Amino acid sequence: MSFAAAHPSRRRPSPAARPQRAPADPRERLLFVLSGVLLSVAFITGGSSQESGWGVMIAELLALVVLLFVLSRREWRARLATARWGVVVACLIVAIPLLQLLPIPAWLWQWPSPRAALQHDLAAGGVTGITHHWSLSPATTERDLFMLLPGFALCMSALALPREAWRRLLWWFIALVAFSVVLAFGQLGAPQDSFLNPVPQYAPALAGVFANRNHQACALAMGLVLALTLLFDARSRMRRGEATHASVLACGILAALFAAILPLVGSRAGVIIAIVGAAAALLANGAWSPRRWHEQRAARWLSALALAALALGVYGAFAWMQQDVDVAGSRWQMAGAAARLAGASLPLGGGAGSFVRMFEQFTQGALMHQGYINAAHNDYIQWWYAGGVLAIAAIIAAAAALIVATLRLLKLQRESRSRMLGMAALLAILMPVLHSTVDYPLRTPALMTAFGMLAGIAVAAGVRAKQHHGNPVAAPAAPTVGATEAATTKPRDHAFP
User: Fold this and answer.
1) Least reliable range by pLDDT among 245-254, 322-331, 460-469
2) pLDDT: which is higher, 4 or 330
3) Which residues contact 388 (CB under 8 A, 6 or more apart)?
């Protein structure tokens, strides 16, 4: 007796019995390709938060093309309408720097105390006839507005595309992270001014496409949790005959590769958030279920190992904080000073892009690090300063949208594709969300654009989960001999090349 006959549950279905996909829509294929190209251009050329160039400009122009394409079709606009709260939050984020370009009355401009001090200095210098804008630096605010476009466009594209496209977009991002790793090792064997180094002013340091190795570590952590979650997805699909052993092997190899390279990058925060993300990925996908823990010795060993690694990571985080808290010019001191500046700048905020000059003036240069300061090293405080009350509202709204999507997905069965893909996106989002407490990963166009795409997938998966719970499917009738081919065909939303 063959193995398949002895184990009928493991027998792969014949090609005739497998569900047939509907023909691919050329317009959906084109939107997917445009989205992948936009993600690639933004990721490869947007690794620095300080400079912009041809690559960033091309990404911004391509983002407008993607947005117009999404709005050109009624079916895609209908999908955006089903995720209207996610669209509203994304539009609110983009609207903040747009509103900050508007002129405001002088009395309102001088309301926050830092602006009043700046006005006093301008008057002492004989500077008059100023047009008062909401932003203290309209030029940099306009630049930051354009930098938001690629992430906003990919968020809308993910909301408009069908579910099968989400997994391919996740794989596209994983491939870009792997490319950055390969590039990083190539940089180590090349001169500093080599074309392999996108930021030749810095010596190669396994940073890949990024100017800051901490941001490379954040990208690796995102790739790690995506690979782990897609590993569980591939195993589930393999049991249904929809995937092969090669898919499972590829996910495992990539997860192991990213985990092995992370400590070599030299980012303490990157290793800590990766440990938290890996533990969350195992928990979300049922690797630590109570039944397995009681019945399987391997599960108990895995749980003990993961808890030990998590405890080590938490200990490392507290040790790092204790070590740097008293260092002059440390990120903790900068974050504290930035919080005082943000509180004094309420309710308007200083405007996107104005932080550097206002922080230098507010601290009188006391916290300059190596002659300059480029960020507060706590993005939440810097957003609070930049947008004031509106930024606080946007952060709360974005967090609420992602939390609602998470709760909806957790109600689905673990084998659900929507749950798998949505949780993969949410866990990847968690990495820059945690990292932003001590750094500024989302100020790089590369990670900002990827964040927008992942947020779109997470919200779209949450909407799909809500529709599933709101429209329960009736129990299937007994199969008949004359069943038509349409009975085995997936819905149109599932079909994607």
Assistant:
1) 322-331
2) 330
3) 345, 346, 347, 348, 349
Residues 305-337 as b/e (b if ≥16 CB within 10 A, e otherwise) read ebeebbeebeeebeeeeeeeeeeeebbbbbbeb
* Non-local CB neighbours of 473 within 8 Å, separated by 6+ positions: none
Contact call for residues 135 and 353 (beta carbons, < 8 A): yes
Spatial CB neighbours of 462, under 8 Å, sequence gap ≥ 6: 404, 405, 406, 408, 409, 422
Evaluate if residue 491 carries a pLDDT over 80: no
Q: Which stretch of DSSP H or E encloses residue 255? A: helix 245-265
Residue 242: alpha-carbon gap to chain centroid: 28
Identify the DSSP state of 11.
P
C-beta of residue 343 within 8 angstroms of C-beta of residue 110: no
Length of the chain: 497
pLDDT value of position 492: 39
How much of the chain is in helix, strand and coil states, percent to nearest 5?
Answer: 70, 0, 30
Closest CA to 221 of 190, 180, 163: 180
Distance from C-alpha of 176 to C-alpha of 223, rounded to nearest angstrom: 9
Instruction: Tell me the C-alpha distance between 52 and 59, whole Å.
Output: 11
Amino acid at 11: R
- Residue 43 carries which DSSP code? H
- Token pair for residue 444? 């790089």
